[in-house]
């Protein structure tokens, strides 16, 4: 993205998959989502310009956890009631079978707009084309 997302300093993020996350393998999802982190996502993740997919509500970028190097996916949504509902529903389902796990959620500013940034597990290069097989050679729709 064009620069730092976020404006407020904050605490450190546990590594993806640490017990504080909602979607531990085999663990049930939380009953509701917690408040998003307010510090810059770039404090915890190195963002790539590589677009993994495009969705109706936002795009998905490749990112890497700074401490562990784990590859993840970052979905960017402009903050709105609809976006918050999407995040809440995904958070509740996270950890279920066939559901991409949410590792964390941030609320940051980007281009003077408040955004929700959803850090999700990376599913690999072969999953995306199954979502949008009509357009060969392009990132999948998420």
TrEMBL record:
InterPro entries: Kinase-like_dom_sf, Protein_kinase_ATP_BS
Catalytic activity: L-seryl-[protein] + ATP = O-phospho-L-seryl-[protein] + ADP + H(+); L-threonyl-[protein] + ATP = O-phospho-L-threonyl-[protein] + ADP + H(+)
Taxonomic classification: Eukaryota, Metazoa, Chordata, Craniata, Vertebrata
UniProt region (Disordered), positions on chain: 1-35
EC number(s) on file: 2.7.11.1
Name the record gives this protein: non-specific serine/threonine protein kinase
Chain sites annotated for binding ATP: 75
Bias type Low complexity, positions: 21-32
Keywords, in A-Z order: ATP-binding, Kinase, Nucleotide-binding, Phosphoprotein, Serine/threonine-protein kinase, Transferase
Family to which this protein belongs: Belongs to the protein kinase superfamily. CAMK Ser/Thr protein kinase family.
GO MF annotations, alphabetized: ATP binding; protein serine/threonine kinase activity
Species of origin: Myotis davidii
């Amino acid at each position: 993205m064009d620069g730092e997302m976020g404006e407020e300093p904050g605490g450190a993020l546990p590594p993806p998959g640490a017990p504080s996350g909602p979607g531990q393998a085999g663990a049930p999802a939380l009953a509701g989502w917690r408040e998003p982190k307010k510090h810059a996502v770039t404090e915890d993740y190195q963002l790539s310009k590589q677009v993994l997919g495009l969705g109706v509500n936002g795009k998905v970028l490749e990112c890497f956890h700074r401490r562990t190097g784990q590859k993840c996916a970052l979905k960017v949504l402009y903050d709105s009631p609809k976006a918050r509902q999407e995040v809440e529903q995904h958070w509740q389902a996270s950890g279920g079978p066939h559901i991409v796990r949410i590792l964390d959620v941030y609320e940051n500013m980007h281009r003077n707009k408040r955004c929700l940034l959803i850090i999700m597990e990376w599913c690999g290069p072969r999953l995306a084309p199954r979502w949008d097989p009509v357009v060969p050679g392009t990132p999948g729709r998420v």
